[in-house]
Amino acid sequence: MLERDQIIPSNDCPTRPRAQAPPAGEAWRKSTGSARVLRYVSLLYTCFFFIEPYYRHSLTHWLWFAAFYVVFLGLYFGITESRGRTQQILFVLMFALGYAYFPFNQSASGAFVFPIVMLAFVLRSTRTYLYLLAATIMGIVLETWLFHLAWWACGTGVFFCIVVGLSNLSYSRQQQATYMLKQANEEIEHLAQVAERERIARDLHDLLGHTLTVIAIKSELANRLLEIDPQRAKQEMIDVEQTARKALAEVREAVVGYRSEGFPAEVMNARRTLQSAGVALSTDLEPADLTPPETNVLCLCLREAITNIVRHAHATTCHISLARNVQGLALTVHDNGVGSRALEGNGLRGMRERVEGLQGKMRMTPAVDGGNSLCVELPTAKPIEKIALSQQETHA
């Protein structure tokens, strides 16, 4: 398995991750628990090494085999745990060990397969790998001819070097492509977040720059008119209050004003995401005229729900429904994956806060037939300014 290692910042954005290939040999040095188990399982193929010593019935042959096997295991695990020049030296020694022992134990031709397989995950250049594979095969054939070895042993070694080697080469390149795609998606997501922060910063600057200037001027004028013309000063303070309330509503609208392509487009994005994860999507969407705040909240909730399904649910099907009734809107996302009662993370917490910001409710419950069911309910939308005023009066 190829793993993430480093994030190299670019010059134009110090914190932006750049998609890059994982360091050579990192797949063998750092692995998940299943990959480490696979290393030991692969050693089952060394059982063929025991065939010739068994039939020779020679203690000397068994001693030489024991010495070979100990060195072989040391090199094998050394390669999986090392990197750089040390790893290169161990590869050379492993090939040399195979060529040195092959004439004495022709059933050990599989010793060439192990370094060939590991090189598929270590070398970044496919051409270099193919050259080394060809050189290994030529070496086996040449050694068989020089020492008059059995051609069946030569054929066995060559066959498995080609088949297993190329299979693992294909798999490793697929893993590299998956890794690069994941890195690219993370970079795109990061750039989108940066763009959204910049948008909010620009909107707040445009909104508050003018509004705060007006408030400052009117407050200063009211202070000067307080003794000269109290009625005029009172009117100026009323204007200041109205301007502040309007600014509050505009700030709320700017912050939640997520510029999306709309809920249908978000559903299409969800379909593509689920399809790439092998999850079948079905929908039941009633036509509904959504206000910008509703679109913002529903799009972000749907995106977070799909992300949780892909990352944690291990689901095979997902159903999305959207309906509007007298009380308001109801979005439901149901999957047949692994039900969870885990603590609410940042994503769900942020989702709940957005929903409650529109006086709505959110429920995440395990479904009766397995999986999870997310329900988001939004009341009939009220103008943002009225919401802001009612909240201000509540705190007063």
Automatic annotation (TrEMBL):
Residues 1-27 are annotated as: Disordered. Residues 196-261 form the Signal transduction histidine kinase subgroup 3 dimerisation and phosphoacceptor domain. The chain crosses the membrane at residues 61-79, 108-123, 128-144, 150-171. Residues 298-381 form the Histidine kinase/HSP90-like ATPase domain. It holds the Pfam family HATPase_c. Keywords: Kinase, Membrane, Transferase, Transmembrane, Transmembrane helix, Two-component regulatory system. It comes from the Bacteria. GO terms for cellular component: membrane. SUPFAM superfamilies: ATPase domain of HSP90 chaperone/DNA topoisomerase II/histidine kinase. The keyword Magnesium does not apply. One of its GO terms (molecular function) is protein dimerization activity. PANTHER family: NITRATE/NITRITE SENSOR PROTEIN NARX-RELATED, SENSOR HISTIDINE KINASE DESK. This is Two-component system, NarL family, sensor histidine kinase DesK. The lineage of its organism: Bacteria, Pseudomonadati, Acidobacteriota, Terriglobia, Terriglobales.
